[in-house]
Structures are given as structure tokens and as C-alpha cells.
Amino acid sequence: MKIAVRGGHNYLATGCEGLINEVVEDRKVKDSVIKHLKQLGYTVLDVTPGNMDRDSDLIYGVNKANNWGADLFISIHFNKAYNSYNGAIGTETWVYSESDNYNDEEYAKRIVDSIGALGFKNRGVKTSIDLYELKHTTMPSVIVEVCFVEATEDVALYKRLGPDVIGKVIAEAISNRKISNSNNNIEKVEYDMKNLVCYCNQVDKRAAEYLADYLQCPCIDATLPFNYVNVAENIIAVGGNATPIGFSGYTTKYIAGKDRYETLKEVLKFIGKL
Ligand SMILES: [Zn+2]
Predict the structure, then answer these.
(1) 123 CA distance to ligand 1 centroid (A)?
(2) Distance of CA 8 from the midpoint of ligand 1 (Å)
(3) What class is the 193-270 domain?
């Protein structure tokens, strides 16, 4: 069974923000869902968008899942209803319709019940014929709203549990099986390459390219859509941030000075040429 998994929104078209930030957290939960689905033996495609505008963001993941011929589409989000909220609001999942021919409501029910079983208020399965991801996917699709970013008790519980636990119960709910704990430690991530260099600003491109030359690895513009998951063991960002949150959460090292010249100096220092 082929499952497409998407983290909602991106750093240029952000989601909701409260005590926690939706994009930051949904990426973590999404990664955990993918890791655990793979442990359960599924073929998984990450259809999370890179940095792009709000319209392209939704189209990207849905098209990728449709073109791939996924059997199930799962999109991870966090919700927000108020500016601030003292207490618990809870978790919910969404499907297009309960009366279509798809069995997505079974997945949606198991997912919301399993997140609810961790202690979140269970708001159940909801339906909408307006949500892009549900409307335009050509397979059963479920949106997971893990919890509410402004609700103090939701966020406290989420932080206590951690994203890995949430992702694990979502994967287990999808498969309707439990992952045995003995499997958890033996999984080793395999990367496509050793090093990857990226930059956000054109002025830092030359410094980034020097580093990539030295490391003999690709050098990419981080403002363009790119799937960083498991692509390289070391993902090195060079220079200034182009987005409010900066480079994708996948970078493992960050090299920058106060301007392009200082950035180049830092790169040369890093490779031992200064
Ligand atoms: Zn969202």
C-alpha cells in the first residue's frame, strides 16, 4: 500500500501560530509518521512542500500524491480557534464526506481515537467538501489536526508526549497494528548523499559554491521547493535567512557572517583555508 504524507503549509506560506508554530511542529510529526509507516512496511512518499506561495503549496502535495498513485493521503496540521485559550480544546480529523465511496473515515476515526487516547480531548471526525487536500486528491484522504496551538493544555500535553509519539500512534492507527518497541532502536536512516550545501540569498551563493566545490557536493537555492528528508547526512546552510524562520528545519550546520564577505571568511575557516 502506497501512502502519501504531507506536512501542512511551509515557511513562506505559514500556518497558524500560538504557543507553538504549526509548520515547525507538523514537520516533526510528519517525519515521525513516515518513519513509523516505513517500519510497518508501507511504501511512503513525502509530499510536503518546500518554500513556496500559498496557492502552489496545496497544489504541490496533492498533485504529487495523485501522480504517484497513492492509495492513501495523510496531511498533518495543527489548528487554531482563538487568539489565546486557557485549557484544552483537543484533536480532530477531517474527511471529504462520510458517504463517498472512500473508506477514509475509518482511518480518520482510528487516528483521532488514538490521539485522543493519549489524553487529548477527542473532537471526532469532521467533514468538509471545501478543503483543497480532501477535494482534489484522487484517493482516500485524511487531514489530521493534532491539537490547538493556542490551547495551554493541548500544548502542554503535546510537549510532554513529543512529536515522535504522536507520529507513532498515527502510523499505528493507519495500519491498525502496533509497532513493537524492539523495532524502534534498530532503524537506521539511509541518506542519498553525504553533504549538501544550500543558501537563501543570491549574495551568499558564491560562498556556498566554494564550500560545495570543496566538499564536492550539490549546492542548491533553499528558497526553491525541495524535499530535504533523508537527502544528506550533512545539510549545510550558508549565509543569511530569506524567510522569517530561516532555512528548513533540516539543516545540520549553519555558516554565516555579518555580511557576504564575512560569510565567505567563515566558509574558508570551516574548510581550513584561512
Ligand atoms: Zn493547517
Answers:
(1) 16
(2) 5
(3) alpha beta
